Structures are given as C-alpha cells and as structure tokens.
C-alpha cells in the first residue's frame, strides 16, 4: 500500500521575494510614460487625498494613465509585461528541485503566491505555472478582453485571508462559505504547522506573524548585496516576525535552500512522531 503523502505548502510574496522590485515597474510603468518613483509618489498622494486603499488606487491609476497615453491594457498585454520579469537567481529551477526533495521524504509540497501585484503578470512569468494558485490583485475585463476596473485588490492586511484559504483548502476567492466555517484543525488539508511563508518586507509582517504564531515558519529574504534590505530582514527577526533570514537566492545549496530543506525534514519527522504517538 502506497504511503500517504504529508501535505505542506509554501506561500510566497512576489515583489522583492521572487523577483526584484515591483512587477509593474519592469515594462508597464515605462509603457505608460512614467518613471517608477513618480508613479508611486503620485499614487500615494492620490490615495491620501481620497482616503483610498493604495492598492486599489494604483490599479485605477494604471488604467487611467494607460488611457491617457493610448497604451493597451488587455489581459494579453498584462501577460506580455509579465514575460519581461527577471527573477532572483535560481528561482526558475527552485520549484522542481525542492519538490523532488520533498517527495523523497513523502511530503506533497504545493506552492502559492500571495501578492499585491498583478495576477495576470505573475502568472505569465517563467514560474507562473509552478503555483497551485496565485492570489494577487486582478482586473475585471470586458468582452474584448480590455481591463475595466479592479476585481480584486490584495493589501498587506487582507493577505492573511489567503493563508486560511490554503489551510482550509478553500482556494476559490469568491467562495466565502468554507473559509468562514468552523473546521477542526485536524481536518484541515494543510495544517499551519506545515506552512512556510516567504516574504521580504513590512507588508508581509501580518502573514509572517500569523504563520509563526500558528506553529509554521516564516522566512524573510532580501536582495543579495543590499545592506539596507538585509538590515530590514534582520529587524523582522529581532521583532520576532520571522524565524529565519536569507538572501533571495534560490539556487541549490544556498542558505534559503538549506532552510527550506530543514523545514521539510522537520515536517516529515513531526508526522512520523505523530503516527507513533497514535499507536
């Protein structure tokens, strides 16, 4: 009889975690005739003026600027922008390598993105098909495929909802039934103890704290070579938001790889102990 695989999940922020910078900055913001610093500065001022959520504001700002300069904003256009994204070192090989390691230890590992970035762009990157689900901000489209208005905006506080969706197996964003139902911890598809969250900054703190408090593991990554970003990651350790820090280098044998492999070993060992305790 085949041995049942142990469920485990890794949830990633995207911007600054799997790829440098914000995903909109690679080619979309230049295509609407703006510099990235000007775009974010103006968006912050807009959000403050209207007392608006900054994510909803930037999504609306994207559409307004695109119309002003006659830049295309169809779903396929967002996908083309996503294809321009440069990933951190080793990220394109990471998923197959770490999945194979998990499988050797009878762990079924799934990967998820929880991001304020644009879903259509993330899904079009080189690693877009490696995720069981991409939870990210997205647009509603008309019959011709043109983006009309923000359909989903994910900010730093609402990110935590998607960890519970992974935990309970409620992956359809529009479904609020199961996510709000009481489900005993032992009946949830992916226990929080078997969830890892990887992020890079302050907007990831609620997710890091939730996973850590529920017995899982949080990892703060930083852009290799950046002293300021390393210091920010170290502060997350000091403030007990994260369990580990590592450069955002996903290559085999690097620190991040070693940390995640150790967590997989721990998940497998804890499961074996639990089975023995049950007799």
Q: How would you characterize the overall build of this protein?
A:
The protein is an alpha/beta fold and 279 residues long. It has helices at 28-31, 36-50, 54-68, 75-82, 91-104, 119-123, 159-168, 177-180, 205-213, 227-238, 255-277, and strands at residues 6-12, 107-118, 133-141, 147-152, 195-199, 217-222, 244-247. A 7-stranded mixed beta sheet has the order 4-3-2-1-5-6-7, sandwiched between helices. A hairpin with a 5-residue loop joins strand 3 and strand 4 (147-152). It is globular and about 65 Å long.
- The residue fraction in helices comes out at 40-55%
Stretches with pLDDT under 50, minimum 5 residues: none
**CATH first level of the domain at 6-20 and 88-138 and 151-277:** Alpha Beta
CATH-level-2 architecture of the domain at 6-20 and 88-138 and 151-277: 3-Layer(aba) Sandwich
Number of strands: 7
Structural class: alpha/beta
Main attributes of the structure:
279 residues; alpha/beta; Rossmann fold; 7-stranded mixed beta sheet
